[in-house]
Design a protein that fits this description.
Strand content: 25-35%
Shape: globular
Distance between the termini: 53 Å
Structural class: alpha+beta
Number of domains: 3
Number of strands: 39
CATH superfamily of the largest domain: alpha-galactosidase from lactobacil brevis
Largest sheet: 10 strands, antiparallel
CATH topology of the largest domain: Beta-galactosidase, Chain A, domain 5
Radius of gyration: 27 Å
Bound molecules: 2-acetamido-2-deoxy-beta-D-glucopyranose
CATH architecture of the largest domain: Distorted Sandwich
Length: 748
């Protein structure tokens, strides 16, 4: 046993005495993980060796007796060592088959056919810092930033060991957990269910908030009661998906954006997943977040180890806003590996709206030239540049998989063409235009050279029909030869031209799988490819995308600093999508563009200022339109949009984010940023519809210094932080639909 005590008590965060140097106390087999505003406690039951959950919430200083439950009925389960029925106990790593009737965190199928497991405590150790997960994305940190407790369990009956890893990031009230299962026996076993995070909360009335949606309709808040039985959701699409995000919050029914308790849970994984809160008859709430059991059945041979993905849990006593800011700061500092994470991202223009797939060198050069003249710094060539006749990518029926420039369109390859683009000087900038491309490397069209050479490389199940979606199939990235093919093909493109940005798209779910475990193997293979390419080309700005926000998850954010938030670029819809996404993910990681009006999806007509304000609240700002179709009014607004970007982007990249009012709750949604040095705040305020009455509520800010005084573009003189936060500003809205304002506050 090693006991590591708090090393310093340096900082006061939100008035709470904070232990900022990492704190795990292992007193015997009583474990306490502490952060600035969180305690996480569990212990080993001395009679049975089971791990018992004690507390996950605000700071506490002692272990206390568990709730009394009358042991009667079927759930008594006294065994030969006198252990009370496990179903009445709050468990930390529930297995299956021994008097616990709830869902397990670990479910193993053994060679003899049974699925009973009996994991009991063996040993533990505390390590400073955080060991990495082999082959999987995870949070990271050095000694002093994070401390890790590893608890080893063993199942004597089936010779399987488990190593649970708990890392506490004290500054962010965050606990990351993952585990390994090692097969110490001589027969194969199969992992049927693996919840990366599992804990049993006491009998509390809780709501579950999750993000539900679909293509162009991502990240809508859904709030349910955590009732008796199971409350939850899952993705079976092979990816994290648009339909549900691998994130949820549990919160008290009275919790708001700024007050009350909230627990956030997020899986650092891009494959199928399942999220469940199970409330049993005694009212305890079991939290489970991990692999989708339908896409598990992962074989583990003798001597082999299964590594679960990591899940991150965050506790906030300052409402959902506090929870989100913990995720944002943790993810920017301790999840995203890219050097671009804390850099401003260049304003870009994407060729898709202007040219579609109908591109050639001369039309692209014209568009690139217009881009540079507008003062935009990065020109992105979208779909349509690759494939060779008869499979040239001139429409979406051919070419995916053949990652070489179409010789009919780029007779000299990409290199000389990109040199031309690079030679355009950007208006009002010392830079020349930079160049980026779009790719979709996990996919293949049957109309491709690759598919004709390697039909066995696609994900398929025996002789079952290989169902097409968008006329394409999914390559099986679980196969090392497929991983190597993609690494080589994309490396060759990058080596051939001066490419500074890559948008990595993925436009369909996985249907026929060779086995349920193929999704886990695929996901690890995809991570290997992303790890390799971002490792080989760290100077490239990589952006994730999956038909919009279909893979906006913490796994991708480990490798890529940003993701495309939605294919829906209507600014009003985007407010809902971006605020929903912000529950778990930082605004600095969102890519958001201004597109033409009327909007191509919903025909809505919104001013360029409003469209820009919505897109400027994201880390990666850009335009997705044809500059030659801009109206005079729109064109003349661009210089001021660019100068606003200069001011706001550094604050979006590294500042703190506050949701003032949600679009679903009010006609006057608003969000706010506070700069990292706290001297500047910026509020994006919106009026959705023109309504005669009632009046707009005062815009009450958050996160300001109560006693400091602020100057602003929105009022003369100064106002105090208290006035702005408790009184608020009444903005002079006009009687018109879709109005927006950007209010700046400068601390005196
Ligand atoms: C663990 O906590 C329990 C409950 O407070 C206490 O009785 C026990 O002595 C503690 N064990 C150790 C080794 O600290
Ligand atoms: C597991 O087996 C070992 C060796 O047989 C024994 O010492 C230990 O008490 C067993 N543990 C449990 C929890 O049964
Ligand atoms: C189980 O196997 C792992 C990996 O070989 C080894 O580190 C561990 O000590 C073994 N555990 C037991 C209890 O044999
Ligand atoms: C374990 O599974 C592998 C792969 O299916 C098989 O080759 C091997 O014979 C199995 N081993 C045992 C001990 O059953
Ligand atoms: C390039 O595309 C444009 C627009 O489709 C077309 O007008 C032009 O003729 C094409 N040029 C070449 C060289 O193919
Ligand atoms: C779509 O692309 C294929 C392959 O390049 C081509 O043969 C076909 O004519 C194209 N279809 C249309 C409608 O342009
Ligand atoms: C292959 O391309 C041809 C020509 O464009 C098209 O008719 C056919 O539907 C395509 N096949 C698939 C599977 O997309
Ligand atoms: C990527 O893979 C290639 C080919 O296997 C290898 O040569 C290279 O070292 C790898 N790069 C990184 C950063 O892993
Ligand atoms: C990224 O940052 C690390 C750490 O600051 C530095 O060592 C490395 O050189 C940087 N890489 C690039 C490509 O800038
Ligand atoms: C460039 O700067 C000049 C002077 O400030 C300004 O008038 C012009 O609108 C700017 N052009 C662009 C494209 O931003
Ligand atoms: C808040 O502002 C006051 C007045 O300017 C200043 O004295 C104080 O240090 C500030 N507090 C913080 C936490 O920055
Ligand atoms: C500030 O005062 C000037 C002069 O009275 C007035 O014209 C202007 O509208 C005021 N600005 C605001 C934002 O209230």
């Amino acid at each position: 046993m090693r006991s590591i005590n708090c090393l310093s008590h340096l900082s006061l965060i939100a008035g709470l005495a904070a232990c900022v140097n990492g704190d795990i106390t292992a007193s015997g087999s009583n474990f306490s993980l502490s952060g600035a505003g969180v305690s996480y406690r569990f212990h080993v039951d001395p009679r049975s060796g089971d791990l018992i959950s004690d507390h996950f919430g605000g700071p506490i200083d002692d272990f206390t007796d568990p709730a009394t439950i009358s042991n009667s009925g079927w759930s008594t389960g006294l065994d030969n060592v006198g252990t009370p029925g496990l179903t009445n106990i709050r468990r930390e790593f529930p297995d299956i088959g021994r008097s616990d009737f709830r869902l397990p965190a670990i479910h193993i199928s053994h060679a003899n056919g049974d699925t009973v497991s009996a994991f009991t405590y063996q040993s533990h150790e505390v390590v400073q810092g955080k060991p990495s997960l082999i082959g999987l994305p995870a949070t990271f940190g050095k000694e002093g930033e994070v401390t890790t407790l590893i608890v080893r369990l063993y199942d004597n009956y089936s010779d399987v060991s488990a190593a649970l890893s708990y890392s506490v990031f004290p500054e962010y009230n965050a606990i990351a957990r993952s585990f390994q299962i090692t097969n110490n026996g001589t027969n194969n076993i199969s992992i049927e269910r693996a919840a990366s995070f599992s804990t049993d909360l006491p009998n509390l009335d809780l709501k579950m908030l999750e993000l539900q949606g679909d293509w162009s309709h991502e990240a809508n808040r859904v709030i349910r009661n955590v009732d008796f039985g199971e409350t939850g959701f899952r993705s079976t699409e092979g990816y994290s998906s648009h339909v549900h995000n691998p994130f949820f919050a549990l919160h008290d029914p009275t919790t708001t954006e700024t007050t009350g308790e909230a627990w956030g849970f997020n899986l650092v994984y891009t494959g199928s997943f399942a999220a469940t809160a199970e409330r049993f008859s005694h009212g305890f709430v079991r939290v489970l977040l991990g692999l989708n059991p339908l896409h598990a059945s992962i074989p583990v041979g003798p001597g082999r180890t299964f590594q679960s993905p990591e899940a991150v849990a965050v506790y906030s006593s300052h409402g959902l806003g506090g929870m989100s800011r913990s995720f944002h700061d943790l993810y920017r500092k301790h999840l995203s590996r890219s050097n671009h994470t804390f850099e401003t991202r260049p304003i870009l223009l994407n060729s898709w709206e202007g040219l579609g797939a109908n591109i050639n060198e001369s039309s692209l050069e014209n568009l690139a030239q217009e881009t540079a003249e507008l003062g935009i710094k990065l020109f992105v060539m979208d779909d349509g540049w690759f494939g060779t006749a008869p499979y040239a990518r001139t429409n979406d029926t051919a070419g995916l998989g053949d990652w070489t420039p179409n010789p009919a369109r780029f007779p000299n390859g990409l290199g000389p063409y990109v040199d031309t683009v690079d030679s355009y000087s950007v208006a009002n900038s010392t830079n020349d235009l930079a160049f980026g491309i779009w790719i979709e490397p996990e996919m293949v069209n049957p109309n491709s050279t690759l598919y004709h050479e390697h039909p066995e490389w696609v994900m398929h199940a025996g002789n079952h029909v290989r169902t097409l979606t968008r006329t394409q199939l999914v390559l099986n990235l679980g196969l090392p030869e497929v991983q190597d093919y993609i690494i080589n093909a994309i490396s060759n493109i990058i080596d051939s031209a001066n490419i500074s940005y890559i948008k990595w798209d993925n436009n369909r779910g996985i249907h026929e799988m060779s086995s349920p475990a193929a999704d886990y193997a695929y996901t690890l293979g995809m991570y290997r490819v992303m790890d390799n390419l971002t490792g080989s080309y760290p100077e490239i700005l990589w952006e994730g995308c999956a038909s919009g926000g279909g893979r906006f998850d913490a796994g991708i954010l480990h490798y890529y600093p940003q993701s495309w938030t939605s294919d829906n670029t209507d600014a009003s819809d985007r407010l809902t999508i971006q605020l929903g996404t912000s529950l778990a993910y930082p605004l600095s990681s969102m890519a958001c563009h201004v597109s033409k009006v009327p909007n191509g999806l919903n025909m809505r007509n919104i001013s360029i200022e409003y469209r820009a304000h919505v897109a400027l609240m994201c880390g990666s700002f850009g335009f997705e339109l044809n500059p030659s179709e801009l109206s005079d009014e729109e064109r003349s607004a661009i210089p001021s949009i660019l100068s606003t970007w200069e001011k706001i982007n550094p604050i979006v990249i590294s500042g703190s984010f506050y949701r003032i009012a949600w679009p679903g709750d009010t006609n006057w949604p608003a969000v706010q940023f506070v700069s990292e040095d706290t001297n500047t705040a910026a509020v994006f305020a919106f009026q959705q519809g023109a309504i005669i009455k009632p009046a707009a509520p005062p815009l009450r800010m958050q996160g300001l210094n109560a006693t400091a005084r602020y100057t602003s573009n929105a009022f003369n003189g100064t106002l105090s932080g208290n006035t702005l936060m408790n009184g608020g500003l009444n903005l002079p809205w006009k009687l018109a639909d879709y109005q927006s304002m950007l209010v700046w506050l400068y601390k005196e």
